[in-house]
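2024-03-11 09:14:02 INFO queue: dequeued item Aldehyde dehydrogenase, len=497
2024-03-11 09:14:02 INFO validating residues
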Amino acid sequence: MSDLSYTPLEQIPKIHATLKKTFNSQTTLPLQYRKNQLYQLARLVRDNKDAFVDALHKDLGKQKLEVVLQEVNSSVAMCIDSADNLEEWAKPEKPKVEPHKEHWNITVNRVPKGAALIISPWNYPLILTVQPLIGAIAAGCTAAVKTSEYTPTVSKLFADLFPKYLDANAYIIVNGAIPEVTTLLQLQWDHIFYTGNGKVARIISAAAAKHLTPLTLELGGQCPVIIDPSYDIKLAAKRILWGKVQNSGQLCVTPNHVLVTRDKQEELIEALKEVNKEFYPNGALHSSSTFGRIVNPGHFRRLKALLERTKGNIVFGGRFEGERGIEPTVVRDVPHVDSLLEEELFGPILPLVPVDSIDEAIQWINNHPHPLALYTFTEDEELKQKVLEKTNSGSLIFNDCVTQVAVHEAPFGGHGESGHGYQFSYYTFQTFSHFRSSLDMPKAAEPHLGFRYPPYTDEVIKGLEERLAAIPIPEVTSQNGNGHSNGYANGHSNGHA
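2024-03-11 09:14:37 INFO prediction written
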């Protein structure tokens, strides 16, 4: 495959104008058009499965099973699911209103936002390009899709395939690096969807703010793991390590580090050793069919430098190969302030952070930015509820890692530093839709509207005040049932009536 050609900078405003023109022509508005484009996107992926497998192996060393299972099959399934459910999703909604408003024909209409910009990442360049595009197509938007220069083979493949399968005036690939993204961000889009890291997200947010453009940020963060000491440690180790080695740890929801009670660290280490041997009997770096590589030498050097500076002790792993190979590495006794906890690792390094108790683990999580995912291994229902109530994260997963991304029926998204907005299936459709409410006031309502017109009279004001006074407001009761709550009761607030 030839080298990736970047989109000429002077072409980008023309692409933007084409997408705006196509949207304004209402070409993308009919549901049947959207369905056809979704089916075409499914064909694009399925027909070229082998090409995507080869491209992802070339760019990331990714194995065929992971590509087919996690990217190809999921992409095709989501395209078809969205097309099959589109009519139901797009139906106008009649909200429940007060009885006197029932004849106003109040409606919530789901309408497309317009021309969207999708900036996709390198770590899962197929599924994380297709997933937001599905939502844009389903909602009736046009879209420019900026693919990653770090996965040039996949990006080149998308550039070749888009015009063969999709409406070339509605869905256009843009390839390039910083200059091309900068040019894209100078233009006014109707929605921006970015998947990546927080540093770049701040730049995109600032650019979007200039145009007051709504945006979705799917970021990441240091997704922690809590292990209840009473849980099956071998099973926890197996599921955690599996989550860590997916795509060589280059996944936004990969378990970043484990908060383990001190008395269980040794048992966890032995279990991780056993599991690693089961996964890679000949060593991960000699298992090219089941273990991938770091995306480029720059990220390889970053991970190597972090590992060299850690104050923890390497339990196993720590070996490197060439400029992209790092084997699964477990580091024990990592202190709360350490190089391995400075940033999202995005690699196959697993720090074990000893804590004295689960409460300390919860406090540790609350002292850090909200992660995209929080993993907790426990069968204790009270502990599950405690973690749910006392922590915050984009999603909360009990007793497994990573599999939340396979549940397309539930919303997926971050919170705070890990992003904002939602995606997956209906939720991606919502992201690219504007909920436009409408109201149609009947002529017959006029006799009931006389009170609102000038001149305003004391009689009308008195009637409104009487109506206000007649609204029942239940008394507030505290947990101890004394009728008072935090000092607010009986018309008093902070000592003032």
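2024-03-11 09:14:37 INFO annotate: The domain at 224-407 is CATH 3.40.309.10 (Aldehyde Dehydrogenase; Chain A, domain 2).
2024-03-11 09:14:38 INFO item closed
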